[in-house]
Amino acid sequence: MNSIGKFFHLNENHTSFKTEFLAGLTTFVSMSYILFVNPAVLGASGMNKGALFTATALSAAFTCIVMGLVANYPIASAPTLGLNAFFTYTVCLGMHVKWQTALAAVFVASILFILLTVFKVREMIIDAIPSDIKYAISAGIGLFIAFIGLQGGKLISKSDSTLVTVGALNNPLVWITIFGLVVTIFLMIARVPGAIFIGMIVAAIFGIAIGQIPMPKAFISGVPSLSPIFGQAVFHISDINTVQMWIVVFTFLLVTFFDTTGTLIGLVQQAGLMKDNKMPRAGEALAADSSGMLVGSVLGTSPVGAFVESSAGIAVGGRTGLTAVWVGIFFLISTIFSPILSVFTTQVTAPALIIVGVLMAENLAHVHWTDLEIAIPCFLIALGMPLTYSISDGLGWGLIIYPVSMLAAKRFKEITPMMWILFFVFVIYFVVLNVK
Description:
Helix content is 68%, strand content 3%. By secondary structure, it is mostly helical.
């Protein structure tokens, strides 16, 4: 125990083995839905769903463990939502591209991603972003994750006239979310240790008690073979030989680049680990992140990236890489205990995401709202992330407006060359997204 504590610097980060374990378990439970959602989404492209379940678990486990051991950050990763939908519905079904070729595009994008990391481009971007923008990113992720929770918990639903509206309170699934939310709020305010995780357990029990969550029919299942999809990305690199496919490659690259970079900034900010507006061990964290994408593509899944649900574990007290290592271990264990995970529905995890959103929104207090040139881009970032359902899109809104507003305020000397580069990159980014 002592050697583990020294390796992860538990005392210096004011945490403990028990806290890191609970944080890892909380993060895993909060993001375990990806084990079922990712195979469902990618499976529509014709890929084997059983193999995808295993690829999802193994790619997540690899990236989490590397993040924990190499970078010592409590940040978990897995195949990301959004890009898996782009992979299936835009590339495979829309463009009529074979899933093997789409995997090859992810593989090529991951190599470019690693090169950008090796040459410290991502690290330079993180260091160049002003502190106010960093706080806005963290708060925006909080609002985004709360929106995901409200949606998953069915407290809000889509509306043809107003886009979103209040959910149907006569739906018993909604009451699982409401019950879990009330319990979690009470425990959080009463400062009960592990309040968020306890709230999820109580919500699951409540869901089973009212007959809305079925009891697992088994506890152990076999591990599906990877063979139908393993290595296909490498075998089909030669298929990346058209302008259309290179647009696909750069779309995977751009969205993953800014999604994961924005998420890392927000989570490190939430954990209070930023030092002098810089992210310590940024190179190690980015290397873990990019290598996970490469390994994931070989295993047979869409891009792997940092998950905003890591904020749930950070809220519980996770501060070191031991949290991420535990998440990785739980992903490995999940390959045989998948039936148990079925009780942690989106309604059960929704209260945790909503509360975490509240905690992360606290960062808005650090933004200089009286300076309009700062307030406008920060507001667009914070609001843009949930409204566009994309971290990278919300980030783009703010980083395009930032140099414009600073010029108007005659503070152009404060605009660093990197911020101008980001301005033009995001303009190209939105153009590429519209071309896809």
